[in-house]
Amino acid sequence: MAGTDRTQAPTLGGPRVVLIEPQLSENVGAVARAMLNCGLDRMSLVNPREGWPNSKAYAMASGATEVLEAAQVFATVEEAVADVSVLYATTARPRELTVRVLTPREAAADMRAVQARGEKVGVLFGPERSGMTNDHIALADTVISVPLNPAYSSLNLAQAVLLVAYEWFTAADETPADTLSMSGTRLAEKQELIGLFDRLETELDDGGFFRAPDLRPTIMRNLQSMLQRGRLTEQEVRTFHGMISALTRSWQHTQNAKRRRELEGDKSAD
Amino acid sequence: MAGTDRTQAPTLGGPRVVLIEPQLSENVGAVARAMLNCGLDRMSLVNPREGWPNSKAYAMASGATEVLEAAQVFATVEEAVADVSVLYATTARPRELTVRVLTPREAAADMRAVQARGEKVGVLFGPERSGMTNDHIALADTVISVPLNPAYSSLNLAQAVLLVAYEWFTAADETPADTLSMSGTRLAEKQELIGLFDRLETELDDGGFFRAPDLRPTIMRNLQSMLQRGRLTEQEVRTFHGMISALTRSWQHTQNAKRRRELEGDKSAD
């Protein structure tokens, strides 16, 4: 799903993503990609195992290099979050600690409220294999835990970042949930549809479609309902008129041919 | 984020994920992992480029082998969706076609409504590089388009599947959005908190904390508010009592030591 439109102004900012001791640079690159898709561009790396910068991260970032270029590197988590006012830690299950736990969706609303007050937000992600320690969780104000299949919960690092970042993005996104995508046309107006239904009824009648006249209103209502469910565009109503013309011509053509054959038969029988 | 609990009954079923001509088997494995995290286990492969089954897919599935084992392989998209009643196509932007477009969240609600009627749901995902063709989109009833950063929209195949599957899962998930995770304790009751505040006020008074007596009610209300914001547990109230005891002992200890030194000073001055 590649739909980048470079003419669009980037939607950036948002919480700082703090990766604690990431083991593989490829994963750092995949995180950058996940982040930028959702308009996040601030990444901090705490003691990355393979050093920094690293070409393998760039190879996996699929063009999200601006996130990697701006990444800050720290020796400790404490230094990485020094200027953060509200810190979240992502983990599957907080153990032993008494801590507030939010879904990513609730956390997104929470973070946006914090940022609206002008306070800095950070989100901690633990190392790939070992995950978050209780020391890291204790440093955070709130835990984010992604609800997943209880019998199989195994997100990789970039997937965990993607879900948190996606909720951050969609929390303020105004894309209509349900739209009809059209190019160079518009929905048909009622008068256009009524005109189509009237013509269809006439042509069907001429073709002997209504064998039981008392069922005619019911049948027409059903056809009307079927065609309206499709939410026809003005262009499609015109196409439909064209189809009716072609089909009636086809019928006339067949009738004419039949009549011609009959006439020819009459002649040959003379 | 690994939180698999094998004792939990799996939450399975849901829409069939149809991958059209996936190029890399690693991606098929990553898709299986994304799916099972969100309780989806029905995968169909249309003409996978590297053949099927493939060990590289298993290596990337991180234990989600049951999805790969059950995967069905077809030669054409038409065969893969033959028994599907409502078909969705995921794409960044529908081109030219007039088609209904849903966000993943709206699509999840839509799919659950369809499945509740007992009808089969399928979701098409195009090949990694080329994406969905208009022929595939025309086969679908509805398009799913993920709202993303307009200046950088570049999900990989498994990420696109993850977001659709995650919305499917969360549409019926009942995890509370905001909870306090506690182990072996409970929230403190008001009587316990009031007892703590009363003792704190007494001890602070003894320590000369309230220098301006007229501000005492305000200061106590602020302290009360600060401590209540933390939503203390019963265990933490007891811990707090312990801290007060230790701090007052510490003060007494210091006072006693000071008095001892004074007495000793008096003696040595004799």
Brief overview, please?
The structure is a homodimer of 270-residue chains. Chain A is α/β, with parallel strands linked by helices and 270 residues long.
CATH class division of the largest domain in chain A: Alpha Beta
State the CATH superfamily name of the largest domain in chain A. Answer: SPOUT methyltransferase, trefoil knot domain
Helical/strand content category of chain A? alpha/beta
Distance separating the two termini of chain A = 72 Å
Query: What oligomeric assembly is this protein in?
Result: homodimer
DSSP strand content of chain A: 5-15%
* Total number of beta strands of chain A: 8
Question: Segments of chain A where pLDDT lies below 50 for 5+ residues?
Answer: none
Strand arrangement within the widest β-sheet of chain A reads 3-2-1-6-4-7-5
Chain-averaged pLDDT of chain A: 90
Largest contact between protein chains?
A-B, 73 and 72 residues
Rg measurement of chain A, Å: 32 Å
What is the architecture of the largest domain in chain A at the second tier of CATH?
Answer: 3-Layer(aba) Sandwich
Helix coverage percent of chain A: 40-55%
Shape verdict of chain A: elongated
The major sheet of chain A is characterized as: 7 strands, parallel
Order of helices and strands of chain A: EHEHHEHEEHEHEHEHHH
Number of helices of chain A: 10
Number of domains of chain A: 2
Report the CATH topology name of the largest domain in chain A: Alpha/beta knot
